[in-house]
Amino acid sequence: MKPRTTLLVTAAVLAGLALGATVLRGQAPVADAQNVSATQTTPPTKTARPLNEASARLQNEANTVDIVKRYEAGLVYISTEQTVQQDPFGMMMGGGAMGGSQRVEGVGSGFFVNAAGDILTNYHVVRGADTIQIRLLGNKQTYTATVIGRAPQYDLALIRPSKLPANLVKPIPLGNSDALAVGQKAVAMGAPFGLDFSVTEGIVSATNRRIPIGFSTAGGQQGITQNAIQTDAAINPGNSGGPLLNSAGQVIGINTQILSPASSGGEGQNAGVGFAIPINTAKNLLTRLQQAGGKEVRAPIIGVTPGLLALQNTQAGPQPIPLGLSSLTGSARTQLGLPSRGLVIARVSPNTPAARAGLIGGTSTKTFQGGQISLGGDIVTAVNGQPVDSLEDLQAGLIDRRVGDSVTLTLVRNGKTRQAKLTLDAAAFSQTQ
């Protein structure tokens, strides 16, 4: 393969040279140059004037420089520490000393969202941290910060530094992610690989890429499928929590993930496919995060309890894990008269959106090896037309909703399909933990 590669590279260089010659010919025809008499005097060579960088700067380049100058002071470098218990069998597997604990450090990014000094970042940046320190551009001083609100399902957290002088707080304006178009400029700020206060540039590659984000409350770690902004602006580990800005210098997203094969060291690298949480999602949560008092803010609920449960053995004893109907065998679904996919409802809480929409829970329970299922109630098979087969699927259809929004559920009850429209009230958004 090497000789072929060499030929291709050589051909590419030659093609570039040929293109250059073509350009030159366009400005000074070869035929005219060859017809010049040998007796003619060659005109004196003029000294080229030095390029004026300011006037030669492209409009896009000037815009990027202006964005950085205006808003880099609003970027925050975050470092964390937490105590992690070591595996007591680590020494047997080639690790260090048996048992004990060790201090683990982490880095990430964030940005000011208001004059009070509140900093928005990813939940996974500060998850489990014992201490959080922040630092600002051009300032070696570090300040301790605490989490005032966390939203694991959205992978968002709001932290607030203490004893930070008010004159150092430089909020970055928040844009409107609903108005984004593919091809728009995207500028990512953050601390990739701990290289604090770095900037990369690209475009918005997709505006509604549905990917798992955050951490599920159903016991899994996969996250909830949500709309994300896709960008080719270089995002790497350490960029998490940093802002993604448009050409007006407004935050359009919060950098959160990359799609890339792991490197030889086991850590993902940028491959031109990065994802950001839309800023409108964060804007909808800001008030709740500010009022959370350090607790967890959750996605809206409609007041239903899942009815298909598997019992998973843990150190704390058997724990119920909600499952979708596709987890059952085809013969079991046929025997019970159930659809191939869906979320079984065991119970509907009173005075909730689900109760007001007429949903009902199961009337009987059937136990099987390793779990149980409620029968006779509603089964949610879709939310706003999107298929549902798990609690995460249901949450995905609710996660970007606001107070007063309506959603349409597709339900199966006793083998018959119907539609139910329910409205999310303030109580659906009030839960914290």
Notes on the protein architecture:
It is a single chain. The protein has 433 residues and is an alpha+beta fold. Among the domains are: 177-290, Trypsin-like serine proteases (Thrombin, subunit H, Beta Barrel), CATH 2.40.10; 304-429, Roll (Pdz3 Domain). It has 9 helices and 22 strands. The strands form 4 sheets. The chain has a 6-stranded antiparallel beta barrel. Strand 10 and strand 11 form a beta hairpin. It is elongated and about 90 Å long.
The CATH architecture assignment of the domain at 304-429 turns out to be Roll
Q: And the CATH topology of the domain at 304-429?
A: Pdz3 Domain
**What's the helical proportion of residues?**
10-25%
Number of helices: 9
* End-to-end separation: 59 Å
Give the biggest beta sheet. Answer: 6 strands, antiparallel, barrel
Tell me the β content: 25-35%
Q: CATH H level of the domain at 304-429: which superfamily?
A: PDZ domain
Low-confidence region ranges: 1-40
Mean pLDDT: 82
Structure class: alpha+beta
Number of DSSP strand runs: 22
Tell me the radius of gyration: 29 Å
Shape assignment: elongated
CATH class of the domain at 304-429: Mainly Beta
Biggest sheet strand line-up = 1-2-3-6-5-4
What descriptive keywords fit this protein?
single chain, alpha+beta, Thrombin, subunit H, 6-stranded antiparallel beta barrel, 6-stranded antiparallel barrel, 22 strands, 34% strand
